[in-house]
Design a protein that fits this description.
Blueprint (H helix, E strand, L loop, with lengths): L4 E12 L2 E12 L3 E5 L6 H8 L7 E6 L2 E2 L4 H7 E4 L11 H11 L8 H11 L12 H13 L5 E5 L7 H16 L3 E6 L10 E6 L2 E6 L1 H6 L5 E5 L3 H10 L3 E7 L2 E6 L5 H10 L6 E4 L4 H11 L8
Parallel strand pairs: 3-8, 3-9, 6-7, 7-8
Antiparallel strand pairs: 1-2, 1-4, 4-5, 9-10, 11-13, 11-14, 12-13
Helix pairs in contact: 3-5, 4-5
Length: 312
Amino acid sequence: MDTLKAIEIRGLTKRYGSVVALDRIRLEVYRGELFGLIGPDGAGKTTLFRLLTTLIDPDEGQASVNGMDTATEYRNIRKTIGYMPGRFSLYPDLTVDENLAFFAALFETNLHDSRDLIDPIYRQIKPFRTRRAGKLSGGMKQKLALCCALIHRPTVLFLDEPTTGVDAVSRSEFWDMLAELKAKEISILVSTPYMDEANRCDRIALINEGRILGIDTPQGIVTDFDTPLYALNGSDMFGLLKAARRYTGIRKCYPFGQTHHLVTDADFDAARFTESLTAEGFSSIELYPVEAGIEDVFIQRMENGPEQSHIG
């Protein structure tokens, strides 16, 4: 058993009929690490979480959590992990305190034993302790679900898209709470479709269509993008998109926030391209080099595939 690894995955594959949900996944999460699984809906994130939390079995490959095999030691694994699924799974007709008491009884513990762990989170929902869970806001539901996942003091925490559907302030608060849990040496595997949240992780894995496109630190992932990148803005954004996609020397153009991002050849002439757009009648053109973000890397690797993605 490698005591440095909280999670170890070797060649996990899961199929649903002809659909390959996970295709030979390989990755490791170290103890005390906050590891992010980054990818869009349908990428395979939830299937991987269900495999690691022993809710379903793989078709191929192996995985271990806390050094225990998910296929043969699932009962022991369930005692040491916390799981917060993407869909709110608490009892909506029970109050906040009733849900906490129920999960404490389920794990044969009590609130006092885990008070130091959940108190920083519970204090934020305490004013609503007698409110039914189904009547809470999205951010409060999120905090209650996290408290319930921590009630038995797990050493590994699985969080499947925990910030989906909540406001920006609640998202930021939630990631602050994860940083505090990491400081208490809890290993965390969290999935998200939000690229900006990836920067809050120690390391990340990019996943799409059941395949890992790369594993590295957020900065390491971005550093690997070695192609010139420009941002383009103007008065007719849809027209600019079509024009850029026709222009020789531009490999790819895609909407990115309020601009378009252009991936270009090394000898791309920005001034000539701007002149060309002006000649076509476009106005208020702004074209300037930018640094790539994780979303840019993700788009590039979706096209290149895992074999060209320097998987770590």
